[in-house]
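Feature request disguised as a bug report, sorry. It would help if multi-protein outputs had a clear separator. Right now it looks like this:
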Amino acid sequence: MIEVWILLCAFVIDLIVGDPRALPHPVVGMGYVIKKLEQPLRELANRQWFQRLTDGRTSTSVAKASSGNRSLKLAGIAYPIVLVGGSFALTWLLLELLARIHPWLAYGAEVWLISTTIATKGLADAGMEIYRLLKQGDLPKARYALSMIVGRDTDKLNEGEITRGAVETVAENIVDAILSPLLYALIGGAPLAMAYRAANTLDSMVGYKNDKYLNLGWASARFDDVANWIPARLSALFIALAGVVLRRPASRSLRTVSRFARLHPSPNSGFPESAVAGALGIQLGGLNYYKGVASDRARMGDAIHPLEAEHIRLTVRLMVVSSTLFVIVLAIVAALLWS
């Protein structure tokens, strides 16, 4: 478990500075490795000797296809092993080498590395940019800004649907981009926080349930689901607490989680999204299009208020307050354990 002040400094640095474009970001390197690994893993899965490992010895076309799918799944296990394990090992080695030069070099590097795994300011800036464009009535630019942070088609969305996309993305990323890396940083310092960020980056790049990545990316998707399981459920509590601070009904937020969270196709994303929906008295979910293909997701929350740009600003406030409460509680827990 790391020193409490390291965690707090990392959180404050991200909250104030964010991710300066002039500095290299570890996620860029992770993305490069993921792309470079894909073709070798697909070639490995096509090797006859590798397919035999999956017990695909029969010659029928159906059996061969099944064997190929199993081979891709087996090859896909290498993704989290290489990237998550490698990120942990490289970060640990870097900090060890810096500590041998001077302890404060290692401390400074750990603070910075942990701050790169958090994205409070980045999320807030992205959400507020869409909010400002909507308030200015500039729908084309608002659609484009939303397209930078979501995978759904945005070219025909009205203000309410743009708002829904922004609120859902900010809410979901309260877990992925803030609470999870903070929790893992507390437990295992920068190495474990960086390992989590690698797992999350893998899921965002290859964890899709489409023809291309359904098999190759299954291990990465499942690994990310497991890593976020506890933080996602904690997020519902802290979003409700943030609602209290912002004079929003915590009971309605928690009731909404209880009713709707498990309807979401993701085992984790429904918790922060339904908590935000309940806190704001809005309904999330509905019909999205991905490259022209319709995807109708379960509705979460009661539509007490129609979706409008102001709900983006309120969601950003819920994100900042819930994250701040979370890091304070983590610091208190760490201080009690250290005492």
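(second protein starts here, but nothing in the output says so)
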Amino acid sequence: MHLALKPALSRSWRDTETLQFGTVTRFAGVLGNADKTLCDFLALLDGTRDRPALLDAGERLGLGREPAEALLAELEETGLLDDAAAAASALARFPEPHRGQLGPDLASLTLVHSGPGAAPAVLSRRAGQRIEVRGAGRVGAAVAAVLAAGGAGEVTVVDGGRVLPGDCSPAGVPPNDVGRLRATAAKEAVQRASARPQRPAPRRPAGAPPPDFVVLAPRDGSAAFAGGWYEARQLLKAGVPHLYVGVVEEFGVVGPLVIPAMSACGHCLVLRREDEDAAWPRVLAQLADDGPGRARTPACDSALATAVAGLAALHVQVYLDGGRPPSVDGWCEVSAVDGMPRRLRLRGHPDCGCLWQPLPPG
């Protein structure tokens, strides 16, 4: 382990003897009695030395071996240290152009996952993730591109037909792809986002395991109302976590993020709305692809779609990195009217069955 002060943290003097690392209060650390000897020792925390070498250097500087050990322990406890060797190893899993692009992502991860080597471990896990996005519209293609840019190892986009002007987004499929196959245009958007050379997508053999995560983002925005019940049921049976996301009329929705057998599912949301409005199932059926209830010109504000796509990608990352985003057992709405995000709670519906526990044998 080659220890280094986290490069994401700024360094400023609170007074002549007190150093502050970081700006945001949640991550900031304060170090008192910072004289010249201590500052000289801090300068050695550049990722080129392991702990024994640092302790030897502390003794040579006149800081003392035991005080140097105590200082390293204090810096580690307050989340100011990272393992530079682990960071280099994690970044080496990505091709050179993408490696440089991921520097700020890794710096951010060091603040969320504070222990030395914890953030590089998260980035390394991302390199092995397989994520499938179903839908290549303004939201879906942008979600896929952001996830690929953040280090997800394999991001595939499933959709049919050809790109229409309304599918295009500054974060997803560009306007010059109008008329091309949606699947091809979305694949190239993913490759551009991750700075990877364009090559044919690998064919998954029959019987291969399902993806680690699926994002349901149909172009008509029906995912915002938890549509596609058959599709979601198959994901539940396969144990695949999945997220609903879409823009409908003037607001966008992220969630629910469904952890099979552990959190409320999309059908729980449908049943909850049915409890409030008996006609809801009939309305929802007419919102399906090519149904008579679809708007002739679906509303999808570019800024709203981009914001929703970014939020959805962040929720996927938080979940796959080991966290629990607010779209689990709930969903988030963002309105084009005021831009205010809101989180609404979702309990498992007793009539759904997704959280029923199996009866004991016998």
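Even a blank line would do. Unrelated, but nice: Residues 26 and 204 are 43 Å apart (CA to CA).
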